[in-house]
Every structure is written in structure tokens, then in C-alpha cells.
């Protein structure tokens, strides 16, 4: 597909055409198999920790959206995969240099050509988004979608960093919980139940 074809498919919401740009979900799940994964959220409280070395020691480090890294001591420095629901500036793309970009948002109109043609690009299926939305009773965050995806893989371990469900707000913006469409209490309870059911998952 060329750029014009992409723009037409995006405008017409031709999901089948857009999905042809994506790595199969089975391939993404396969790449997670056997890995110790650090999923790094953007909670401001993470900046007050010293988890950086633990994060960088993971087999795979996945960050979210613009992924601010105020210090390597708290956040680590590696970014292997980047899960997006926003457009990424060239400065952030260069800074993070992910080897795979995952577009998690159902808002296909935000998806840009550079992201859609990046190596290993993955487009999260709308059906998966809708299923998690129904389970949570609210639009899921990018982090929740990634947790759901990773939990379905044969990964060895999933360590969550920077997930306090907006208790300390976000490093990537100034909005309050009332200004975003997510149910953070519901997501917190869902993750807690998930951790009880799957001992491979831990939150720091």
C-alpha cells in the first residue's frame, strides 16, 4: 500500500486494508513468549523511585505514548516497543527509537503514515478494544490494553512500573482524572484481580 492508499483507507475507515499493514497478532504474541517484560506507565510517582536498573534488566521494555523519561535512575533508558494512542513527534521518535510501534487506539484517524509503515508495526484489533471496554465499562487506557494483550501471551513475567491509576497524575500531561474518559478505579480493580489470577504479573 502506498501513502495515498493509506490515506484513502484511513478516511474510509477501511479496517481490512489498514490491518494489512500490521504484523499478525499471533506474531506479536509469539515475540512475547518466554520474555520477562517491563511495561512502563507514565505515573508521576515513578519519578520518585529507583526502578531504572530493574526496568532495563527486562528482556523487553515497553513504554506508552510519549513516554517521558525524567531520569534513567527512575525510568531506565531502553525502549524496545512503544504502545501508542497519540501521534508521536519526530523528536520523541528519535529519543525513544523503538524497534516496534503498536497502535492501540481505536481512533484510526490519528494513525500517521510514518507509524503505520514502521518496522514490526502492529494495529490492535477493534474487536479486542471493544471487548476490554465492555469488561471495564469504560474506554480502556493504552496501558490496560497492553496489559490485556501481554497477559494473553506465553510471557514468562510481566512487571508493571508507573501504574498508580492516575493517583499521582501523569508525567505526559496536566489533565486530572475527571478530564479523561477512563475509569481508573475500575482498571485498578481489574489489574488487581488479574494479578491474583496470574502470578506472572506484578506491580511496583
Automatic annotation (TrEMBL):
It comes from the Bacteria. One of its GO terms (molecular function) is sialyltransferase activity. Signal peptide: none annotated. One of its GO terms (cellular component) is endomembrane system. Its main location: membrane. It is a single-pass membrane protein. Pfam families: Glyco_transf_29. InterPro entries: Glyco_trans_29 (IPR001675), GT29-like_sf (IPR038578). It is found in: Endomembrane system; Membrane. This is Glycosyltransferase family 29 (Sialyltransferase). Keywords: Glycoprotein, Glycosyltransferase, Membrane, Transferase, Transmembrane, Transmembrane helix.
